[in-house]
Amino acid sequence: MRTQLLIDGALVPGGRGVFPTINPATEEPIGAAADGDPDDLDRAIAAARMAFDTSDWGRDTALRVHCLRQLRDELGDEIETLREIVIAEAGAPRMLTYGGQLQTPVDDLAFPADTAERYPWTADLGEAAPLGIATRRTVVREPFGVVGAITPWNFPHQTTFAKLGPALAAGNTVVLKPAPDTPWCAAEVGRIIAEKTDFPPGVVNIVTASDHRIGALLAEDPRVDAVSFTGSTVTGRAVMTAAAATIKKVFLELGGKSAFLVLDDADLGAACAAAARTVTTHAGQGCALTTRLVVPRRRYGDAVDAVVAAMSAIPFGDPSDPKTLCGPLISARQRDRVQSYLDLAVAQGGEFGCGGGRPGWAHRGFYIEPTAIAGLTNDARAAREEIFGPVLVVLAHDGDDDAVRIANDSPYGLSGTVFGADGERAAGVAARLRAGTVNVNGGTWYCADVPFGGYKQSGVGREMGLAGFEEYLETKVVATAVASGTER
Ligand code: NAD
């Protein structure tokens, strides 16, 4: 099977031919993806610009709502095809495709469509006489124009639809540049848009490419009004720098090193089991997963034992098996990167409670065992840097203040968890965390109407929810002079 680019409403081959996409569970190629080149990107941006500047897309809310609902329905009709692709291409455990890896982001396209339908696009501030001139003031919310959307491989559909949905609902046109590791997921969305929906030509363009520079060119292009990026903090910094030349709006969802705090009155076994399950979900390849477990010092040994027991029971292996929670990493490069952090942890005095490398049975596939690391402090690199694997660093705290200090002693601020028997006390600790999303005793913040994003180097702006929709809107004020109660 081969995929195609979506440019100006047409499915077209890539200027650089094709590149293979690899199944991370087997290391076998699963097919060929269209390899877009700078000329393809140039045409995609030109088409998006033309669609925004010369069509009614940005003003026709009813058309946008119709197209988005149609897309949601058509994706729903092809959900089984999309499911097999995301399992084969991203190594996504099948069970997660019924939630955040596929079904939920598709269903969640309803939210931006509904929001656009009922959104107050204009607000009348009434008359006033600033500087002595009687004036009627109206605030108008408008789309930015052309949005460049750049996505990672770990949750390809979630990151794609959390951008396409609100950006399009708000009236923008889009050029999407997916990660080279998961081009098929995006290309299938492009095919469905081209073949089965009424999106006007140029409104959505999708350029898959093996070369990361296509993303860099998109970020710096002066015809692009805003860049919405999800990926690593290092690349986010490069995107921000590239976008600075044309002062474009930049929206960033970046990395994390989130803490799971266990207070001294908590059910330690339940907390450690939850932490083990969280960090092994999709082999730890989730930006908001909690990767530092911070437990009371006097219960440290029991906590490590509980984590090891829970990790040993995690269903680990073939992502197509419906019971699997922890599948492979995306690539040999990521597996080697995770392994280098494990080696570094040992070099800095850490010990493996369990795991520590490739499982003996994995002669093929980019697998790393669920791993618990004990014996480190929060200044070790494995405790400070994003590893992006099924790796939990267990740290000790000396009370609530110390636990908060450790959680906040990080360049990141994406997420956090607090477990404690006294709900009020746990909520008080949660309130002190410098992070965009916090769960208390296992609550779930991931939902279409909930804004998601990071503090500090975890990002700029919010995705999803009303805040995520408004990220894609400019604000214009129209001030009309009035005389004797009549506009002139
Ligand atoms: P990455 O930063 O390597 O790549 C992300 C995307 O940026 C890819 O499409 C890539 O081709 C593109 N890119 C690479 N160099 C570029 C450049 N100079 N200019 C513009 N685009 C460029 O990230 P990844 O390895 O694909 O994904 C893993 C990272 O994503 C992790 O750090 C993870 O925490 C983060 N992530 C964050 C969130 C969030 O919402 N905060 C969600 C998912 C993943």
Automatic annotation (TrEMBL):
Active site per database record: E253
InterPro entries hit by this protein: Ald_DH/histidinol_DH (IPR016161), Ald_DH_C (IPR016163), Ald_DH_CS_GLU (IPR029510), Ald_DH_N (IPR016162), Aldehyde_dehydrogenase_Rv0768 (IPR026460), Aldehyde_DH_dom (IPR015590)
Keyword Oxidoreductase: yes
Alphabetized GO MF terms: oxidoreductase activity
Assigned EC number: 1.2.1.-
Location of the Aldehyde dehydrogenase domain: 18-478
Pfam families to which the protein is assigned, alphabetical: Aldedh (PF00171)
Family, as annotated: Belongs to the aldehyde dehydrogenase family.
Protein name: Aldehyde dehydrogenase
